[in-house]
Amino acid sequence: MEKREILKRVFGHEDFREGQEQLVDELLGGHDVLGVMPTGAGKSVCYQLPALMLEGVTLVVSPLISLMKDQVMALKASGVAAAYINSSLTPGQQAEAIRRAAAGAYRIIYVAPERLNMPQFLAFANQAQIPLLAVDEAHCVSQWGQDFRPSYLHIAEFVHGLPRRPAVGAFTATATRRVRDDIIKLLDLEEPLCLSTGYNRPNLHFTSVKPTNKFTMLCSFLDTMPGECGIVYCNTRRTVEEVTGKLTLNGYSATRYHAGLSDAERHANQDDFQYDRAHIMVATNAFGMGIDKSNVRFVVHYNMPRDLESYYQEAGRAGRDGEPAECLLLYSGQDVITGRWMIEHGDENPDLTPAEREELTRRDLERLRQMAFYATSRRCLRHFILSYFGETDAKETCGNCSVCQGEPFEVDTGRARQPKPAQARAIAREERRMRKAARGPETALSAWERALLDSLKTLRTLLAARAHAPAYTVFSDASLVDMVKKRPATLDAFLDVSGVGQAKQQKYGQVFLRVIRDGMEPNEALAQETDDGPGRLWTEEEEQALRGEFQRGETLKEMAQKHHRSTGGIRKRLRTLGLGE
């Protein structure tokens, strides 16, 4: 298939975004690339699309388990055979994934950098046809970046050890000139096309305030975002615990994430956030790098980060679908003092010389100073960010930040907050809706269209629950808004919706048309789905769980309850797997 046909058929997009086609063409031609593209600009398509056109299996080196899981889940939802290999899998599961990969079961494999030198994986890689190796979050290779990971330094060695060198694509959202140079050098990119699409995210609204009471300010802000998903970043574990406890006490749907929790609790809390069971994630910066949750509508920095690189990457986790989103920074002078202490008392890298350590400390203190300048800036916040990253031609006013809109910097939030009455919450919600109305397509909808959008969101939630998948992997908010605008009446017309590829058309088209075209309620539309019809495809994870349940002797009824299916559907799947009579 031609690349534009795959772009629509698999990913549901009519055209490439800025920079994507150039990077795709270079990789298809066997050339190295370095793509610096802001979060939400579509970096993953730049290597996923070539992977579907090249012979063999593409490897994607990725730093975090959560990122791999999200990406693989989204690919499977679009009909792409993909897998991941990392420490979340048992040795047996890793061996099985490698065995399937050797048999040609996958087009794309996500792998942690630590797994590259695993003997079994090396044996597979030396026998497999690997036309492309993509390095996600490539800034992790540089000690001058904000997320240096020593394991990334071994990627070039792995590539050189392959029988045939693949094209190498490096991708990142934030990188200064020094970090970009490091990426090229340390990954040993060969005459790469270096392309930066710019750092501007016009859908993000930036606000920086200095409140007299941070928690009161946070709650006032959250009251304007009812039911929306978002992240609250704190600079210490203790602050995460305090903020989560207070939010829960005040009736907010919040959970927590930091390195002091057990692996089991971190994974459970992250799943609650990913699956929209908890709307607010309160976390240290250990959470979220590369998170692929498209419906994050706000990011609040309860404490000022130590550098603009970290701030912009974390803030960029809002609004990945292109819809309007809020980025709120709650500043205090104590944040600067805490940041300086953490820099001067941080863990020392034993591989650095004293001179290098001194230079790193000097650089980090300068970055902290620039971050404080941003937080207290009385000129356009967006212009400050873009200028910092080298975009000297950025407009001096954006009209979409607190400074440009004349909002006060110092805010008297009064005494400690008491739970807000329902009427006050409703007023705050309406004020928020009116402020957003001029900025986003969703809020420009008529009352009838908003009612339809609410129905489609409910249907999406029901389908996601049945498939045990996050709601955003069914469709993004942007896709649902486009459905409301276009109101498709046939399956062919449904394919014209942004974000609808062939796999999702076949899987979800009929049930969404029942709501859009026929006016059915979501529950009524879903009730007409057959037990194993559209929206109920079995995933590899479900099948693996079903095998275990069968081997443990569980009854059909017990298995049906766990998988939210009928006993007939369970019996049919067991037969397909060669386990039933």
When the domains are counted, the total is: 4
Mean pLDDT: 86
Write down the overall geometry: globular
Classify the secondary structure makeup into a structural class: alpha/beta
Largest sheet: 7 strands, parallel
Low-confidence stretches: 437-441, 530-535
| Record field, number of beta strands | 14
Overall helicity = 40-55%
Strand content: 5-15%
Task: Give the termini distance in whole angstroms.
Answer: 41 Å
Radius of gyration, in Å, reads 24 Å
Considering the protein shown, what is the CATH homologous superfamily of the largest domain? Answer: P-loop containing nucleotide triphosphate hydrolases
Please report the number of helical segments. 24
Looking at CATH, which topology of the largest domain would you report? Rossmann fold
Strand order of the largest sheet: 3-4-2-5-6-1-7
CATH class of the largest domain: Alpha Beta
CATH architecture of the largest domain: 3-Layer(aba) Sandwich
